[in-house]
């Protein structure tokens, strides 16, 4: 891969500029107002794939945003790597907290990124990380060093739960035939502590609506007389955790796989400083399920968080109103072997059951996904580990992450393929938050590391 | 008052048109964007007072919106009625629930208002009710039947807690010298069940802010590890009521005046149908403090309601975020002898004390006001009662209302004057809600009844 690495070094400026251009398109999939931009991004990705030498490129229409597919078959007898990524991004609000506009990428130095980091929505999640693969493959093709076949499947609905990806995958099992799936949509422990994500949490996401009186009421005339939907909603949500911060939904923990003491001891070896953690977030204390450490709470334990709540008067000043309705968006992170559909059903049944007769409650499921685990003795993991060792000079640590890429479980079910999560982001990159950024170091380290994965994966498969 | 009544009858169309014009100005005091309109409304009121023959009219500047003052002194030896009202209105949102635009008044018939009702923000609260006084005084002056002196004090900040009125009143004790204060900013039981408000609840209004991590976080990476400010806020709010729906703030009930069994029995005589009440609001059950009836809960008992709550992602679709902050607006309705400053202080201390160490909490007091009671054996009450008897053909029922006009207690303290609350609105008028309206019957019944109050009040004072 020497030619490939030289090619990367001599094209650094262009590789960076291309990413910045991609980040300028506000491809927010959750908000229909940005539809045109999401579509445009798909076109740009397809064009990029063509330009680097991917022979077959298609923009595959779905009921939602299209999936960009591409493939280059070097030799059908060789292994095939299927790259998955997404070109859509999270909404950027609250906009006022961004120090520079979310879709005008700029490179700024930070303590963690002395070489500079690219500040923009999607810089890390996932345009930056997805585009590393495009550039790594470009470098291998241009250097005549692509050792195996490669397929790309880049979607535009990951941030809204990939509602159409499973349909596409099921309808294209033959086309997507491969030996391994490669994804960069996770993080690593630190720039000098490389790690590979071997586990992901699942997700169940619901929106709840509590309705009291049929119209907003004057809180003086009706206060104390009727159920206030906001007060009731707070009581219902509060009751979802007990005093040990365990979730109270009956049956919620029934299928949770408990780790052995040995496994927990192994996990505890990963470097973690509670003091630094609190300092970075400016909190005095952490908060979570009794009996588990913070890294455990964030990876091997299921959670329930309110992601949004609203109701009544939220403008300037004071309004003495009892709202007719109150709403919340609630997500639950799941662990093996919790089934998201089952958990959503348990939530709905429980939430409806705890509603007092003075209100009506509706639970609308948004989307879900199963948890997944990648074995560290697999060829895919070993190839990735060797690749990191080559570029970082040290072995990566296998880590179970708290995030969810629900489609990883779906890939395994439908395609029978394991996914290797070579994430180069950092927890501090503020993905899904204002001021999302991605280290320039990380971007290029990814581009440099990926070709070695192709090399080792091909060799280990011989 | 025969000439006066004839004058009213022959000017009905004009009186109605003038109110509609007034309702077209969006004088929302809570939102600075409407500042120009609030000021314009003050100018219009001042102009109207001049046109009806009020001799001295001033637009008195304050630190906020101006107070329109006017007086007509018939004879210093005669009693003086001081009319208070407000020309500002509540915000109109949620706009999408209005069946016609809030500032384009239209007259529509309803079951309760077969003669039609004026649909517009401020129709009842308080432009419609305030303007009845302007028109009633016009009729008396035009008919040469004004039996005593009259002063007007119409403010533009009632809906934001009258922050500058007390200052104005304190600085103008001599100017505001009067024998009684007359206010129409309340309601009556029904169009065929006239009533006079003899008690008002006080108010304490706060905004709370819960801060967790220093930035929005990805709920996958941090979910379960850090305190989610929204979850914590729901727990804190939920804990403010116990299982009997009593407020748990220590000391909250200490000064509450408990009514005797006799007083409660007297109250229970007012017509009230729980079935109709629930049906009108489309609720299956009422909800409130154990041991009290619905009318009691809404008048003689203090309450705590969330008037607004917000935090995290509230847009379309799903966003897996842990918000850095969560907010709520909370108001407490108070009864004699609860002191709003004391209650606000008790709330603040308690709310801060129940915050877990994993978050920071800020409590910002908005405004408050004391509860008040008007004795039914006073000359003012008797004059009002006689006036209603004359126009409705039956004695009005004295009623303690759940609403708050905090300034009524302030008037008593600073000016030593009792306030008579001749309200002509109905509970169903949807004040502070979408589709606020005011019966055409009620508007004119008010204009017709007010002159008789002047007559009887002057006579009873002889």
Automatic annotation (TrEMBL), chains A, B:
Q: Which keywords has UniProt assigned to this entry?
A: Hydrolase, Metal-binding, Protease
| One biological process term in Gene Ontology | proteolysis
Domain of life the protein comes from: Bacteria
Q: Does the keyword Hydrolase apply?
A: yes
Q: Name one GO molecular function term.
A: peptidase activity
Supply the CDD domains for this chain: M20_dipept_like
Instruction: Name one matching Pfam family.
Output: M20_dimer
Q: What InterPro entries does UniProt report for this protein, alphabetically? A: Cyt/Met_Dipeptidase, Peptidase_M20, Peptidase_M20_dimer
* Domain (Peptidase M20 dimerisation): residue spans on this chain: 199-356
Kindly provide the name given to this protein in its UniProt entry: Dipeptidase
Origin species, per record, is Taishania pollutisoli
